[in-house]
Amino acid sequence: MSEAIFQTPGPLANGWRLDHSYSRLPDLLHKPWRLSPVQSPSLVLFNRPLALSLGLDADALDTADSAAVFAGNTLPPGALPLAQAYAGHQFGGFTNLGDGRALLLGEHITPAGQRLDIQLKGSGATPFSRGGDGRAALGPMLREHIISEAMHALGIPTTRSLAVAATGEPVYRRETLQGAVLTRVAASHIRIGTFEFLSAHEDKQALAALVNYTLERHFPDRIGAESPALELLRCAMERQASLVARWLNVGFVHGVMNTDNAALSGETIDYGPCAFIDRYAPDTTFSSIDRGRRYAYANQPPIAQWNIARLAEALFPLLHPEEARGLELANGVIEGFQDEFKRHWLSGMRSKLGLFNEEQGDETLSKDLLNALEESGADFTNAFQSLSSEAALQSSPFGDGALATWHADWSARRSRQPQTHAECLQLMRKHNPRVIPRNHMVEAALASASAGDLAPTHRLLAALSDPYNAEAPREIAYLEPAPSGSAPYKTFCGT
Ligand code: AMP
Ligand code: MG
Question: Ligand 1, atom 11: nearest CA belongs to which residue?
């Protein structure tokens, strides 16, 4: 199958090399669709480093002319736009969805041979729009650009943003906003909801084809298992467990972990209501519509596991010829999530604490710190920063109280490993970001951008591009939580 389905075209103008393996999958999964040209496209942001790594001609594309491509007025050479069909559990309830405001232009083949989806988001209505306008507003698209690029710089698997283009047309939400299109680059857009969609259609053949396709595209070293569906379930579980562990280690709250926003590739996808925590509070929820705190910071691991259970249900007919055995196997994978998550999370915490070897008590030591941080109301990111200095390795930077007690335990723990302070600090600095996208700074940049001033956005992007570099000079504003007394930060899904 692989040879026919995955092809490698030669490069066309500006370095574009688009293939269309997804369109060779069963028809149920995609609808060929068209661009919906907009009035006056203009390029707002262009990601030159990403363009270069994709083998695109950054000079040729970073021009006013190419706004027509990034706003969806003209197609890049070799593009064959389609809208993808999928379903998903949104806040626990099953719904049929699909690309209601996105178009897949094709899969770009990079010089290194990587296959990456190029998708326009906000490019107009499709057969899956369900009454929506198919459009996106400038603020949320800039927000996706900023936060996904920050995640990438933090070393967390994520979709990327190649460009944001303004449409010159209004979009009507609670207020009238400027329209924009984001060009998203992703390992793929195959979601748990894509499998749920085929399962709802009871199309076992298509389901099997998508299983094989996903294994070939994302897990080529896992092909050949007795049950490809079971192997894929395992791969998805492992990637989600590792991803969510990384989120927790940097204080990220995704905010809308519906199964349609869970990518099989293991990339973070769909930056709607996401945000980073300031002070450590496990129940932190930013999304204004998440009243039940379903997607709160600390609820992300059990939700990812719940999502894996939905994938298991969708794949169930393919797991094993005997139902009872299939159920047993599925449960084994689902239950394995907890250990897998904990392994990644604890390994992340050890690195954040400068610990090289493993000891039984490390989980307790980590949780004791988090409890003390919660109690003291300390800023999560900056607490780890204040631990990451020669002085802090010697004596507690926290005065007395629970944090000081914890510091004594930590010092004792460190004394039982052979590494020097310098080695310890090096490890900590690699895992404790100095800069994260502080909510108030992101909001300030977006407010300026919507008034036509992109300078704060560029400054913020520059600060976020090198988050672990302790030596880089920074504006103090990027390093501080929102001023005390600020209202709790709220995000809105109205993207
Ligand atoms: P999201 O919240 O971005 O994950 O989107 C959930 C679903 O709603 C997806 O199927 C989107 O394509 C669809 N959707 C979101 N916004 C719009 C819009 N403005 N017009 C049409 N469909 C939309
Ligand atoms: Mg989505």
Answer: 100
